[in-house]
């Protein structure tokens, strides 16, 4: 599965030789969702072996792909998208969990987060075809928008989980939130094995629990939104939380010499044009952090920060200001920073 939204979060935690067996660290790496994953798990009293854990992780991620990958023609979501039926379609529990959270964020943000944007995403060349088409005309955009609208074009039930198309042309793309769910799914695998200190990262987004092999909080860096370099803008300590960053500086298209962001405004069907370059969100889990980071980036600096303050979202904004960057933090984000310093 490939995903449209991610800005790299550099992991600073380095492996070390623990002083006792209880802090023994298992390190796993692999590929998934068109990117890579990295896991640091403190074994503690767990009896699981590295080989067993690797298989469990890979199986869990394969399951997420089989349910929600738009790049897998046989996945659950691809089959739903191809269907021309308006009848209720039963969906898997995992698919339902992600849809429920997506709908929550859609409503919270006034529609800025919308998983039915697939026709617009494809139109601008950011979808499964990954091509660079000519700049869409206003007519093409208008026609594509006719099947877009999470609150009007699809219906969703959570118990039992089911999905229904109102418009047979409507399709679903969970790229902006399913990666976070994959992270949480791996975390649940670790906990089922009795591992309670870990960091799970996929494509720059992550979730942590407990402490690292030194017995200290996990420390990560938020990348400076500059496509020409790999530099750190902000360092943050994260424990028992999910963290996700959405940025406009690594995934974009140049059409007729003009640069277009992959972040789409659901109302206009066009890439956003504001100066907000990157949004990092810390939330209770990676699924929520992933979706909120995308939504706040789509909303822009003023609307996004207003929502973060109103809803108590821990958000860190990096805004372009001519040839420099300005950072802004929500009250909830500053509170997390202050707590980590104590």
From TrEMBL:
Chief location: membrane
Cofactor: Mg(2+); Mn(2+)
UniProt topology in membrane: Lipid-anchor
Keywords assigned by UniProt, alphabetized: Cell inner membrane, Cell membrane, FAD, Flavoprotein, Lipoprotein, Magnesium, Membrane, Metal-binding, Palmitate, Signal, Transferase
Catalytic reactions on record: L-threonyl-[protein] + FAD = FMN-L-threonyl-[protein] + AMP + H(+)
Record's GO cellular component terms: plasma membrane
One Pfam family hit: ApbE
Gene Ontology MF annotations: metal ion binding; transferase activity
The UniProt record lists the keyword NADP: no
EC number assigned by the record: 2.7.1.180
Residue sites binding Mg(2+) per the record: 176, 290, 294
Enzyme class (EC, first level): transferase
InterPro entries: ApbE, ApbE-like_sf
Keyword Magnesium annotated: yes
Cofactor note text: Magnesium. Can also use manganese.
Record's subcellular location: Cell inner membrane
PANTHER family in the cross-refs: FAD:PROTEIN FMN TRANSFERASE, THIAMINE BIOSYNTHESIS LIPOPROTEIN APBE
Function: Flavin transferase that catalyzes the transfer of the FMN moiety of FAD and its covalent binding to the hydroxyl group of a threonine residue in a target flavoprotein.
Record-stated family: Belongs to the ApbE family.
The name this protein goes by in its record: FAD:protein FMN transferase
Species whose genome carries this gene: Pseudovibrio axinellae
Upper taxonomic lineage: Bacteria, Pseudomonadati, Pseudomonadota, Alphaproteobacteria, Hyphomicrobiales
Gene for this chain: apbE
């Amino acid at each position: 599965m490939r995903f449209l939204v991610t800005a790299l979060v550099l992991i600073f935690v380095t492996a070390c030789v623990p002083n006792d067996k209880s802090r023994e660290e298992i390190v796993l790496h692999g590929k998934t969702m068109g990117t890579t994953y990295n896991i640091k798990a403190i074994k503690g009293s767990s009896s699981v072996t590295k080989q067993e854990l690797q298989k469990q992780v890979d199986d869990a991620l394969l399951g997420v792909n089989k349910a929600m990958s738009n790049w897998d023609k046989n996945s659950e979501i691809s089959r739903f998208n191809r269907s021309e039926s308006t009848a209720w379609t039963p969906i898997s529990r995992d698919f339902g969990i992600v849809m429920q959270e997506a709908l929550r964020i859609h409503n919270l943000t006034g529609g800025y987060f919308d998983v039915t944007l697939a026709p617009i995403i494809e139109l601008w060349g950011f979808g499964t075809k990954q091509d660079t088409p000519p700049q869409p005309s206003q007519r093409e955009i208008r026609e594509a928008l006719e099947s877009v609208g999470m609150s009007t074009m699809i219906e969703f039930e959570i118990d039992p989980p089911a999905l229904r198309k109102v418009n047979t042309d409507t399709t679903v793309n969970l790229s902006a939130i399913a990666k976070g769910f994959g992270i949480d799914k791996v975390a649940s695998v670790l906990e089922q094995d009795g591992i309670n200190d870990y960091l799970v990262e996929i494509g720059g987004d992550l979730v942590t629990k407990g402490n690292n092999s030194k017995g200290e909080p996990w420390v990560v860096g938020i990348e400076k939104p500059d496509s020409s370099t790999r530099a750190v803008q902000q360092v943050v300590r994260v424990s028992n939380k999910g963290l996700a960053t959405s940025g406009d500086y690594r995934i974009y298209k140049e059409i007729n010499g003009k640069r277009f962001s992959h972040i789409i405004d659901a109302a206009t069907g066009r890439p956003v044009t504001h100066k907000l370059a990157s949004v990092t969100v810390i939330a209770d889990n990676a699924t929520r952090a992933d979706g909120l980071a995308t939504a706040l980036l789509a909303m822009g600096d003023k609307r996004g920060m207003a929502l973060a303050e109103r809803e108590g979202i821990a958000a860190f904004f990096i805004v372009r200001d001519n040839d420099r960057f300005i950072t802004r933090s929500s009250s909830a984000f500053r509170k997390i920073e202050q707590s980590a310093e104590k």
